[in-house]
Amino acid sequence: MSDKILVLGSTGKTGSRVYKMLQSRGADIYPGSRNSPVPFDWYQDETWPSALKGINSVYITFQPDLAVPTSLGIITKFVQVAKDAGVKKLVLLSGRGEHEAMACENAVINSGLCCTILRASFFMQNFSEGFWVDGIRTGEFLIPVVKAREPFIDADDIADVAVEVLLDDKHDGKIYELTGSELLSFSDTLTKISGALKTDVRLVEVPVEEYAGILKAHHLPDDVIWLITYLFTEVLDGRNESVKNDVELLLKRKASSFDHFVEKAIQSGTWQN
Asked: Which of 7, 111, 157, 262 has the fewest CB atoms within 10 Å around its CB?
């Protein structure tokens, strides 16, 4: 059997980390992105068979998110193409508490292939590798009103788990919930960031409709605006206000703290003007 692993989203938040970690472990890996030597594009299914040729296992991250309405049809078709190509194992990065994502999970689970589902909470790296970076740099962090707390998770932890799952078949058939070790409000996170930076980063909360209008004024794509609105009105409604210990069970260590993430972000210079 081939041991070749295809990492989809190999330039993304978790995919890039998974790819580098597997590379350091000497795994036989292949990147999957629009700019890879063998291109892969979720929205151009003619690219899929070439990317899947000879592949045994696939790490799946879907862009922009499994919650978007088109995801189920695309994932369902991809699973069939993967089976036809001889793929044996799928590892799907999913969203925690997203009903739409669960439908995509079922498409993978019912595929007849070996599979593992990784349900992740909100990424810590959204503060350091996304459009929120500017708000931290300017000292005014603007988001919709959120009352729930979230167990933010470090993308490095997700990648560590994904590598473990990809390389060890004992995780086949399992569903893991990946969270950080503490529940934090957005106010809590900015207090930690402000304290570490020794500067004030002010939290500004506005109604979600107003926030969507601000994003539209900044020319963000409609599907991205829809997704952000969905996350803040549905996923961050309190349904995920709990901590799980699956990261610790799999990695034999505690999940990374938000304080540790902040230290790494400062060392990287990501919040410097």
From this structure: 111
Question: What is the tally of structural domains in the chain?
Answer: 1
pLDDT along the chain (273 residues), means of 10: 88 97 96 97 98 98 93 98 98 94 97 98 95 93 94 98 97 98 97 97 95 92 89 92 97 98 97 89
pTM exceeds 0.70 for this model: yes
Domain of 174?
Answer: 5-121+154-178+242-255
Does a structural domain hold residue 229? no
CATH number at residue 170: 3.40.50.720
**Token pair of 122, please?**
């909100």
Which residues neighbour 193 within 8 Å (Cβ) at sequence distance 6 or greater?
127, 136, 201, 262, 271
- Sorted by sequence, the CB contacts under 8 Å of residue 121 that are 6+ apart come out as 96, 150, 151, 152, 153, 177, 178, 179, 180, 240
Separation CA 201–CA 127 (nearest Å):
12
In a domain, 95, yes or no: yes
